[in-house]
Design goal:
It is built from 16 helices and 24 strands. The protein is of the alpha/beta class.
Length: 613
């Protein structure tokens, strides 16, 4: 049943959808953007290395088309740069994803796997030793001035902000918990100063002013500079956001709050009605496959929630323009790389899911990545190379000409120029490691409704290891859950991930003409290759994350899944098939619960053995 939210919506659904958002209306705020030309451009530094600006949104989707509602982003970044359509986060939740961004390491190598202690958050980041070994530290050693404003990590609070201070920043102005996600009650903390409350002011507008101030500092530092601007939009509004795990009722997630000037926009927008929108047939694995269909009341609420996200992004859109205009006015735009991305994606109603993230579906892991800067083609939208958040830190290190920080990185620099992109089509990795631990949390006023009539506050057993593999002739997602359920989707024929091929009866029968194939091979030949690859990526480190096939095929003759599908390897994969598995569902990364850790290795003559990761 399709529910259209409009002025003619029935009273009952309007109450459930629009009014149920229960969000306070922001008061109009005076526009306080600092005018341009306050100061003449600072004399240029003798160091002509490029400046780097990162704009990092929170929970921004690709597949729900939020980018289509950001005309200023399109004007200043997309139309002037290159869009990477196959860019992925590796862990679809805030803090682990951000730690991966700034360290260049997968979550299983940072062991920051949650937003709270004991498995995650800022205290875990510090305890793991990364406060002295991450991107801003490396860039300062390379001679850059470094600046940050907005959300850094979860559990970075008004109580622990100085214990210790985040290292590596020339100047900073951080949002702090427990008020990080309160659009009208933000708390910021500048450098070594005490936190300051901004109750009643709009978070993104405050952030914009702070970003412009830090940009000015960067210009006048007489060094190349690195600046990150991290608004909370379009994340849910949260009152309060707990700093340690608590009871269910302590997390109050409601729709994001737009600035008053944007609250009237997009009155007819609604969640795209794709094939996986509230499907008639259950999909997914573990707890997801037990979800009940969303009711019309919930769908109406979700549509209103979706509109609020689009509205909240409008202040971010203005922020993008403000930054680009100031870079231009200062005379440094043509020597500045601007990188626009998000920590993770988002779903609303797909696979019967309430608003949220934390799943391995494309909506949650495929995120925006748009880059403009020197040598980058303008308006190039079809770059289909596979890239991941582990690649962001090495990309920035390369741009900065940094010598420190390269050791132990799980990613590689993203090709930026046309010739680099073309060369990479033959040699760049085609896979992304995807992983998650813990639970899934529904956002908004509704909890998860199960098909047995129960209503639950969490999706339990949401721990999984997965692969996204995209190459010539295949486009696959393969996952193993802590329940030891498996998922396999062929996104060439099933882009909405509704038909789990691993549950196909063909896997339990003899080959037949109607059996699904990949590159003309049956699934029974494909799956052992995926198992072997996942056995490497789930625990890989450094170079083995970039080139996992080198572990399985050390002779160097296999670089892709396509190569591994050669029939000459059939006997090897059939004889050594070792399943990825779990012995227990954990809330964090506990190696002892994650099954076998040793990869299989092919050697000429039919011998095989264990491989080092």
């Amino acid at each position: 049943m399709k529910i259209y939210l409009s002025l003619g919506l029935t009273l009952s659904l309007a109450t459930a959808g629009l009014h149920a958002l229960e969000q306070p209306q922001p008061q109009p705020q005076p526009q306080q953007q600092s005018p341009l030309n306050l100061n003449p451009p600072n004399p240029k530094s003798k160091d002509n290395r490029p400046n780097i600006v990162v704009i990092l949104t929170d929970d921004q989707d690709v597949h729900l088309h939020s980018l289509d509602y950001m005309p200023l982003l399109k004007k200043h970044i997309s139309d002037k740069g290159t869009s990477y359509k196959r860019h992925y986060c590796t862990t679809a939740i805030c803090c682990p994803s951000r730690v991966t961004l700034w360290t260049g390491r997968n979550a299983h190598n940072t062991n920051v796997t949650d937003v709270f202690p004991p498995y995650g958050g800022y205290p875990k980041f510090v305890a793991q030793g990364f406060n002295e070994n991450w991107l801003p530290v490396w860039l300062q050693k390379a001679g850059y001035s470094t600046f940050y404003t907005g959300k850094l990590f979860n559990a970075h609070t008004v109580s622990n902000y100085n214990n210790p201070f985040p290292s590596g920043w020339t100047s900073s102005d951080f949002l702090l918990d427990p008020h990080t996600y309160q659009y009208l009650n933000a708390t910021f903390q500048r450098n070594s100063d005490a936190p300051v409350s901004h109750e009643g002011e709009y978070s993104t507008d405050i952030l914009a002013q702070k970003a412009y101030g830090l940009l000015s500092e960067g210009i006048h530092s007489k060094k190349p500079f690195f600046l990150t601007v991290a608004p909370i939009a379009p994340h849910s509004d949260v009152k309060p956001f707990p700093t340690i795990p608590g009871k269910d009722h302590e997390v109050h997630m409601t729709a994001p709050i737009p600035a008053a000037r944007h609250a009237h926009l997009f009155p007819s927008a609604r969640v795209p009605r794709t094939a996986n929108f509230n499907p008639d047939t259950p999909s997914g694995a573990s707890w997801i496959k037990n979800l009940a269909k969303l009711t019309p009341e919930v769908i109406a609420y979700n549509d209103a929630f979706y509109r609020a996200r689009l509205q909240a992004l409008q202040a971010v859109d203005e922020l993008v323009e403000g930054i680009v205009q100031r870079l231009d006015e200062y005379g440094v735009l043509e020597n500045t790389y601007v990188i626009y991305s998000a920590d993770n994606g988002y779903h609303i109603s797909q696979h019967r899911l309430n608003p949220g993230k934390e799943c391995g579906f494309e909506e949650d892991i495929n995120v925006p990545l748009i880059i403009r800067g020197p040598g980058i083609s303008a308006g190039r939208e079809e770059v289909d190379l596979v890239t991941a958040h582990t690649d962001i830190a090495p990309t920035i290190l390369k741009l900065a000409g940094a010598e420190t920080g390269w050791e132990g990185l799980d990613g590689s620099p993203i090709p930026l120029r046309d010739e680099e992109i073309e060369d990479a089509r033959e040699e760049r990795q085609e896979h992304v490691n995807v992983e998650f631990w813990g639970r899934s949390i529904p956002e908004g006023i509704y909890k998860f409704s199960l098909d047995d009539g129960k209503v639950v506050a969490y999706g339990l057993n949401n721990t999984y290891k997965a692969l996204r593999v995209i190459g010539r002739g295949y486009n696959l997602y393969y996952a193993v859950w802590c329940t030891n359920e498996h998922e396999l989707y062929d996104l060439t024929t099933d882009p909405n991930q509704l038909h789990n091929l691993y549950r196909s009866p063909f896997l339990r029968s003899s080959p037949s003409p109607s059996q699904p194939t990949i590159l003309n091979l049956p699934l029974t030949s494909l799956i052992p290759r995926l198992d072997a690859l996942l056995m490497v990526t789930k625990s890989c480190k450094g170079k083995t994350c970039i080139d996992p096939w080198s572990v399985i095929h050390p002779a160097g003759d296999v670089k892709t899944l396509g190569h591994a599908l050669a029939r000459k390897f059939d006997a090897f994969y059939e004889s050594v098939r070792k399943m990825v598995g779990f012995t227990k569902c954990e809330l964090g990364y506990i190696v002892e619960s994650e099954g076998a850790q040793e990869a299989v290795v092919y050697r000429e003559g039919g011998e095989y053995g264990g491989g080092e990761l």
